[in-house]
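User: What would this chain look like folded?
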Amino acid sequence: MKNLLILVIAITFLSSCAKKAYRAENIDLITLNHSEIAILPFEMILTKQERESMNNIENVERSVSESLGFQLNYYDFLYRRKTNDKVEVKIQDYKKTLRLLEESGISIQQSWDMDPMELAALLKVDAVVRSRINKHRYFSDKVSFVADVSREIVAEQLGRRSLRSLNKLRNSKSIHALYELIDAENGEIIWHIAYECKADWSLTMSELIRSVNRKSIKQFPYQAQ
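Assistant: Here's the prediction, encoded as structure tokens.
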């Protein structure tokens, strides 16, 4: 029941996300002979509050942990579409991707800055998915919750026109999420989609990112005809 509630909240929330998308005109021709793709570890940019509350080692550990978690989450969503015959390309197991990177002496953070063509050649795939999540927090979820409750009281007593200042306090966090599909042969970005989303106290940062992951995959290339 709780998971269903989270999903309903996420879907309702995501309908207000700002989205920008690009699809190469010749993408169908480029991907025609693609047989396998890999999902690279997510580049994670922590909030200012997170960075300031931890030392450098803790920052690295947090970034890497979240990177792996959301890489797995993206792989899981995409793999489900594959098993449901909605995606026609093979998806390299994320464990194999990580193993090949480790065997080549490439750390998670180093992979964020490397040439995608070089990584694709190392992983022996036809294309790679590169993702970046930039997190922002405006204030605590507690403040957001209080603002949400207060606005209903204000609306009842003073009318909806008095809600402008409280509305600004409802969203406690936001993310900028970018997903790119990069061809291994020439390094061209043949598809990308970007989201700018905000959320209030009712959705955690991780739930927000997972929801955007799910939404982006519905727009993913290699869709079965």
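The beta strands are 18-23, 36-39, 43-45, 90-91, 127-137, 173-183, 189-199. If you want, I can go into more detail on any region.
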